[in-house]
Automatic annotation (TrEMBL):
GO molecular function term, any single one: deoxyribonuclease IV (phage-T4-induced) activity
Positions annotated to bind Zn(2+) 1: 66, 106, 142
Organism per entry: candidate division WWE3 bacterium CG22_combo_CG10-13_8_21_14_all_39_12
Protein name listed in UniProt: Probable endonuclease 4
Taxonomic superkingdom: Bacteria
One record GO biological process: base-excision repair
PROSITE patterns membership: AP_NUCLEASE_F2_2, AP_NUCLEASE_F2_3, AP_NUCLEASE_F2_4
Co-factor binding details: Binds 3 Zn(2+) ions.
Residues annotated as binding Zn(2+) 3: 179, 226, 228
Phylogenetic placement of the source organism: Bacteria, Katanobacteria
Length: 279
């Protein structure tokens, strides 16, 4: 079982590894640059070397970057689309420089067109990003909560995008448990959980499912509210998390905590222990 956390990279990417290690995380996720700007940094040789040294001396087995929040590949606005492509490309290039497992991003909103049109633009954007960011770092689609014009809100929609990349192993999926629950996927009911597994296998495939964002939900089932809660402090429930964590198809996937934290400072060792106590 690999349990990770979304940690701060303030002061340098090497500091993210230090913080993850201090909290006994097996996996680390962090930002490369500000999530609120399209201008992505260029990593220096010193940045890369310091990061690699800290990682080498740790027990962290997988690393991810969360892409900028402003990215929207589903948009019909050309300026926003190409700004998003450029920023995600740079993030992928930086990710390859430090040998990340993946860059996780939100697909965005179709802005009053249609979900299909939005998803087709996402496919177009991914092709452009991969063409200019060679390597092994994966680009991972994160499921969203169905608010407004967002796309990628069901496993079927994520599968529609994946179908355009059947021969591209660098495109995969990260499932956020809060987002899925808020969209109506009920983890606490065995028959509904099995139905969800069938949907994941049919549209995504367990081999294309790379990792999880492990979050409880402040909103109730099918509430369409995107508000993370600490594990066991929201509406998913103990039984729901036990079912997720014990599912054999998920056993090798990193579970990355994106919670407020029991101390209010983000995921930490106490939050990791809460997960371990459910095993």
């Amino acid at each position: 079982m690999h349990i990770g956390g979304f940690v701060s990279s303030a002061g340098g990417l090497d500091k993210a590894i230090v913080r993850a290690t201090e909290n006994n995380f097996d996996s680390a996720m962090f930002f490369i640059g500000s999530p609120q700007t399209f201008k992505m940094p260029t990593l220096t040789d010193e940045d890369v070397s310091s990061y690699q040294q800290k990682l080498k001396g740790s027990n962290i087995s997988s690393t991810y970057a969360h892409a900028l929040y402003l990215a929207n590949l589903a948009t019909p606005d050309n300026k926003l689309f190409y700004s998003s492509v450029s920023a995600l490309t740079k993030t992928m290039q930086n990710g390859e420089a430090i040998k990340l497992n993946g860059v996780i991003f939100h697909l965005g909103s179709h802005k009053g067109t249609s979900s299909k049109e939005g998803l087709d633009r996402v496919i177009k954007g991914i092709k452009k990003i991969l063409d200019t960011s060679p390597g092994n770092t994966k680009l991972l689609l994160e499921n969203a909560v169905g608010q407004g014009d967002k796309v990628g809100v069901t496993f079927k929609e994520l599968g529609y995008v994946l179908d355009a990349f059947t021969n591209e192993p660098r495109v995969g999926v990260c499932i956020d448990t809060c987002h899925a629950f808020a969209m109506g996927y009920d983890f606490s009911n065995q028959s509904l959980f099995e139905k969800m597994l069938e949907e994941i296998n049919s549209h995504i495939g367990f081999d294309r499912l790379d990792c999880f964002h492990l979050n409880d939900s402040q909103g109730e089932l099918n509430s369409h509210i995107d508000r993370h809660a600490n594990i066991l402090e929201g509406h998913i429930g103990k039984e729901g998390f036990e079912r997720i964590l014990s599912e054999p198809h998920f056993a090798s996937k990193p579970f990355i905590l994106e919670v407020p934290g029991v101390d209010g400072n983000g995921p930490a060792a106490k939050d990791r222990q809460t997960v371990l106590d459910l095993l």
